[in-house]
Structure formats: structure tokens, C-alpha cells
Amino acid sequence: MKNNIRIERAIMDITQQELADAVGVSRQTINSTESGKYVPSATLAMKIARYFGKSVEDIFSLEESD
Amino acid sequence: MKTNYLLPYRFKRVGTVMFIIFVVFWILLNHFENVLPEVLVKVPALVYDGLSQYKWFGIVSNCIYDEIAMTGILVSLVFMALSKEKQEDEMIMHIRLQSMAWSIWVSSFIFLFGIIFIYELAFIYFTYFLFDLMLLIFVIRFNYQMYRLRTR
Predict the structure, then answer these.
(1) Would you tell me the crossing angle of helices A5-12 and A27-34 to the nearest 10 degrees?
(2) Quick one: pLDDT at residue B77?
(3) Bridge-partner residues for A51, per DSSP?
């Protein structure tokens, strides 16, 4: 699953730690999610999307292999 | 929130200290004779050896140091294995599950190795700590994965 969290973060000019605190996870979880090493739960995906004021599908998208 | 069956974070540290103490205790008991005076206690037994055949439900006279050491090692490993991280989240839960699966694989191979290559009394000693070994492998694997994650 792809995501554009890094881009959204850049637009809002916030750090991984700030996003992590806002959605209640560790910074490492945001880091791993951004780099595609970890696929978040639906709950976390929705929290992240809500934080950016967008829908989940604006942030996350399926890949061919999914 | 769903139940996660985990103890608070402080149990991790308590478990680590207890583990060191009880492992030292176990080594003292088994490798140095007469460090402690033998204390025989009458204890209830579910099954015990009646030499020719097993006996059920009785009272046996037993030196309980090894029971104390083994209980201590088991409890401390459970504390280390099943306590939360400082900041617990879903990815850590995922890493924990992966590490548990890894630990079951590795300890099963070690058990298999023991079944095939270890015999007689040595095998009995080998089986003493098989469950503890699985927990210990899990603790090492999980903490290694967490360390790698933090330093990424």
C-alpha cells in the first residue's frame, strides 16, 4: 500500500513526532508507515487522514501487488 | 480498547532484575555444592515417583530451593516477555507477534535437535528449561527488533 504522508507532512510543515503525538503512536510507527515498511490498521489510517483533513483514499492507495 | 494481555511497563525492569537474581541462584545451587544448607519441607504432590510406578496425590519431603529458582526464572521471564513498551502502539504489537512466531520456530528446532541428539539424563535436564528458552528467545528477538527500529 502506498501513501503520501511525507508530502502531506511537508505541506503542513510538521515533524514525524508531531504527527505521531497527534494520532497517538510512536514516531517509529509514522516513520515505518511513510517508508512502506508497515501497513497501518484501518483505525490509524483514518486518524492520519482526519488529521490532514482528507479522506483515507487521498492519503493511502492500493498497489498492484495488494 | 481491546484487552492486550500485557502487564504495565515497569514489570519489564522488575522482570530483568529478578531474572538475573534467580539465574545466579540457580547456578549457585547446581554448580557449587553445600552453598546453602539443605532444608527439607513436606509438600503436597500431585504426582511423584514411587520408584516402580508413579504415585498420585501424596505428601513428599523435598528441598524446595530448585522449585523457588525455577518459579523465579519463569515468573521473571513472563514479566519481561509480557510487559508493555514505554509507548505502546499497534506496530509494536505487530513486532511482538512476529517475534513470538520467530521464537516458536527457533525453539521448536532446538527441541527437535534435542529429541534427536540428546539422550538419557541429559535429555531430562534439557527439557527443564525448554519453555523458559522459548520465552528467552522471544525476549531477545523482540528487544533486538525494537532496538533496530529505534536506531533506524
Answers:
(1) 120
(2) 98
(3) none
B94 touching chain A per CB within 8 A? yes
Return the residue in B1, B87, B88, B91 with the most chain A beta carbons within 10 A, the one to mutate for interface testing: B91
User: Residue A20's closest CA among A37, A5, A39?
Assistant: A5
Give the pTM. Answer: 0.89
> What are the residue ranges in chain A where pLDDT is below 50?
none
> Residue B10, class by beta-carbon neighbours within 10 Å (0-12 exposed, 13-18 middle, 19+ buried)?
exposed
Contact between B80 and B15 (Cβ < 8 Å): yes
Beta strands of B54-113 (E only): which ranges? 54-63
Tell if the CB–CB gap between B91 and A28 is shorter than 8 Å. Answer: yes
Q: What are φ and ψ of residue A14, in 5° steps?
A: -125, 155
Q: How open is the CA angle B123-B16-B102, to the nearest 5 degrees?
A: 55
- Phi (first) and psi of residue B30, to 5 degrees: -95, -20
Q: Chain B partners of A26 at a C-beta cutoff of 8 Å?
A: 87, 89, 91-92
* pLDDT of res. B1: 55
Beta bridge partners of B55: B48
Q: Please identify among residues 1-60 of chain A the ones whose CB lies closer than 8 Å to any CB of chain B.
A: 24-26, 28-29, 31-33, 38, 40-41, 43-44
Q: Do B90 and A26 touch (CB under 8 A)?
A: no
